[in-house]
Specification:
α1 runs parallel beside α7 (160-183) and α3 packs across α9. The radius of gyration is 19 Å and the shape is globular. It has 277 residues and is mainly alpha-helical. Residues 94-117 have low confidence and may be disordered. The chain has helices at 2-27, 32-62, 65-86, 94-100, 104-112, 119-150, 160-183, 188-212, 219-246, 253-270.
């Protein structure tokens, strides 16, 4: 079955991308400029996917624009509250990397400059970030599974736009978890355990929605809601989380703007390869 093969391919790629993000600090330095360039591209792609793929898919399944927009608004508000509650998405890794490269003497003075009583709170902050990103990736997985259901029997590149938006974003999410957990004193084993669990979550969620949700719920009820909800979440992440990180960088304004527009253009172009709504 084409859909099952595509789901397996997407799942393997997402798992590998997340593990790559967890291992990035051990491979090379993710500089501030590189991070801002990636964020600009991803923000344009996620915005384009939400407006050009997820909402049209949802409307085709629901047939009622009011229902689609209610669920889109619900997804946007939910993700906004999630971001504010858990404070997830650490997008400036230069300072964290620099901290990790301190000499032993500097690290000793740096440690005494902080109140050691706050270390348990810092560790719990890392747990909050992990929890927030796990909820986020569950929404991603549900969106991917739902869009594959909506395109069942269609072209082999069904859901390519949603998949690509998630794929490019996953390494940064995993890198956030690795960086913050390392900075707050978690062991290497704990960090890898968290990274592997996080990497599995999106593919497993997508598979559950693809195989598990269909037999129990009529697709005309849950499918439009999940697609529209995910669209709202993508819009919130693109406009409320990623773009504010890059909009004040005047020295790279032209390059970052071009990358944002490139992301939108990629989202639009991917529509040519997907089944009609």
């Amino acid at each position: 079955m084409v859909g099952t093969s595509v789901l397996a391919l997407y799942g393997i790629a997402l798992f590998a991308a997340s593990l790559l993000g967890s291992g990035l600090p051990r491979l090379f330095l993710m500089t501030h400029t590189r991070t801002q360039m990636v964020l600009s591209l991803i923000s344009g792609l996620m915005l384009g996917v939400a407006l050009l793929h997820l909402i049209p898919h949802s409307f085709a399944a629901a047939g009622a624009i009011d229902t689609v927009m209610i669920w889109t608004l619900a997804g946007l508000v939910f993700m906004l509250l999630l971001i504010r509650w858990f404070h997830f998405h650490q997008h400036d890794f230069g300072s964290a990397a620099a901290d990790c490269e301190l000499s032993s003497a500097d690290a000793h003075h740096h440690a005494h400059a902080h109140d050691h009583a706050h270390l348990p709170e810092q560790k719990m902050g890392a747990v909050g970030l992990l929890a927030g990103l796990c909820v986020h990736t569950i929404v991603d997985g549900a969106a991917l599974g739902a869009v594959l259901v909506s395109a069942m029997g269609g072209a082999s590149l069904a859901g390519a736009g949603v998949f690509l938006a998630i794929l490019l974003h996953k390494p940064l999410d995993a890198l956030s978890i690795e960086t913050v957990m390392a900075a707050t004193g978690w062991s290497s084993v704990a960090r890898w355990s968290a990274g592997i669990s996080f990497a599995l979550l999106c593919p497993v969620t997508a598979a559950l929605f693809y195989f598990g949700a269909m037999p129990f719920f009529p697709s005309d009820l849950w499918l439009p809601a999940i697609l529209a909800f995910a669209a709202g979440a993508f819009i919130c992440i693109a406009l409320g989380d990623l773009l504010p990180e890059v909009q004040f960088h005047r020295h790279d304004r032209l390059r970052l703007t071009c990358l944002f527009l490139l992301g939108v253009g990629v989202a639009y172009a991917l529509g040519w390869f997907e089944p009609a709504h």
